[in-house]
Each structure stands twice: as C-alpha cells, then as structure tokens.
Amino acid sequence: MRRLVRQTALEPRNLVLPLFVAEDVTDKKPISSMPHVFQHSINSLCTITEQAIRAGLGAVMLFGVPSFDKKDPIGSEAISPEGILNQAIARLRSEFGDDTVIMADTCLDEFTSHGHCGVINSNGKVLNDDTVELYTAMALAQAQAGVHCVAPSGMMDGQVGAIRSTLDAQGYTDTTILAYTAKYASSLYGPFREAVGSSLSPTLNTSYRDPSHIGDTNAEDTTIMPMYRDRKSYQQDPGNARESCLEYSLDIAEGADIVMVKPASLYLDIIREIALISHVPVAAYQVSGEYSMICAAGEKGWIDAQALSLESVLSIKRAGADIILTYFALDIAKHLEK
Ligand code: PBG
Question: Does a cis peptide bond (omega within 30 degrees of 0) precede residue 263?
C-alpha cells in the first residue's frame, strides 16, 4: 500500500554524478573532506564513468583540476584543448560516445591563480564582461572536445546568451546549456574548494601578485580587497528568493535548456518556486557540504548516513527538481537496484 500511494520516487536516470579529473593524479586520489570521492586521472575517470553508465545514471558532470603551476590570472588552461578538462571530455566522448550525457563545468575558478570565477582588476573585483568573453571561449573548447552539455556556473550576467550565440555561430547548435541559474553564495561549497584545489579559500589571504592580468595591466602588486575575498559580488544572497525568479527569466530568455538551483537542501523553497514557473527541466545540485555533513554525522554514528542520503535526495526531487546532481548518485543507484 505504501508503495502504491507514494508520490515521488527516485530513478537513476535523473541523477548526475559530479566527477573531478586532475592533471597531477596518476591513479586516483582521495579528497579528505569528501569521503569516498576522488580526484581522478583520465584513466580512472573512464572507469568510474563506465560504472555510472552501467548504473543507469543520467549524466556525469566534469570538473577539471590543472597542475598548480598551470594556473594563471585568466585561467588559460580552461580554454586550451590540451587543458585537463578538455582532454578528459575528448577521451570520455571517444570511449563512450552517446552512452551517457557528458556535462562539463564552464567556469574559471579551478583554473585561475587567484581562485575567482572570472578575471579580476587590481582590487580583486571580478570583471563581468571580460569574464563572459572567456566563458564563451571555454564553452567552445568544450564543445569542440565533444561535450554534450556545457554548464556555466560563474553567475556572470549574460553568460548563457553569449555562450549560446558563440556555440550556434560555430555550428554547435545541439550542444545544450545547463545554466546555474540560482547559485547562492553558500558556506556549503567548502569541501569542493579542497576537491578542486581552489586558490580562493576562506583562510587564504591572497596577496596576489601578478602584473599580467586583465583589468589593470600596470598593477605590480595586486592585493585582493577584503570585500572581494569571497564570491558575494557575483553569487546570490541567501536572504533573497525573488531574485532567483529574475535570474530564471534572464536565463530562459538567453537560451538555457536546463535551469539549476544550488545548493539544494537549504534552498528547497527556491527549487519549488522555479519548478512552478519553469517550462524547461529543473536541476538541483546537492553540493559538497551537503554531502560531507551527512557522511561525517554517519561516521560519528549519530545518524544513518545511507538512509539520510536517500531521504535528502528524495526531498530535493519532491520539491520539484527533475534532475539532481549528487555525490551519492552511484550509491543511490545501487540501493535502487536492490
Ligand atoms: C564553480 C563551482 C563551485 C561548485 C560547483 N561549481 C564552487 C563555488 O562556487 O565556489 C561547488 C560544488 C560543490 O560544492 O559541490 N565552478
């Protein structure tokens, strides 16, 4: 009877597994703040992608981690076809073709020496339009490498429209865009920043020296001002809900194919609000902090981590998400198989 009347059910095809591929890793390297999650080499990335396909997951979402010495102020490695992320996309596409949907993060934070999602001026302020230009080049490089879906996550104004017109102009009319539509400046991204070796960490005071960056080419000594040491100048304020509907309208007008809310668990109201108005599929990202908190409490024996992981993802679906990005994706698929 319980099964008969249940409204919401999880299916592996709705789940997307986020994966990290790192240039300096030879096999796979554990991420201490995210139990059972690894930085992969391209080979181990292929292995886990094959598992994802066998488990029936809907897609994989790739994040690239370049060697530290290859980071620069404009994140050049994100655009180079030789960059780790573009190499990984090309390899997965040649191994697996259309067996799964290959998605990639279209953002510069893993690739910039200062760790911001875009290029900065001499005060450390992120420059919206210069950044969007780099995103279009990055999206094009990803499309050329064979990605099915680009996922601009930097919250720059106009990013979706600019990427859409670049892709269309270059003949990539079928490459889809998953837009990070409502991305909040959240404390839940902490473990992720370790996972990708981000240079922007709450504890790192970046007195950032580099004369060559965009914005102020004369700057010999760039000290990122305190107000620019986080992502609050481009990510949303957790206190605001209405703004997400505006971001939704803009992304739709600019050509987004899927809209996403992030983080998920603390923003179920936003997911619901967007789901009620959206004419395109709605995704939600259960981010690193959500994952790690469940794992940590489970390790302490304070909660049943497996049960809670299922309940949390089910709740995200119940709120209205059609697609859920979660580090639990493989575990959940295994559980559903049983
Ligand atoms: C930005 C990006 C971030 C995450 C996904 N894309 C980090 C950030 O905004 O600081 C976080 C995902 C997670 O915490 O699991 N490229």
Answer: yes
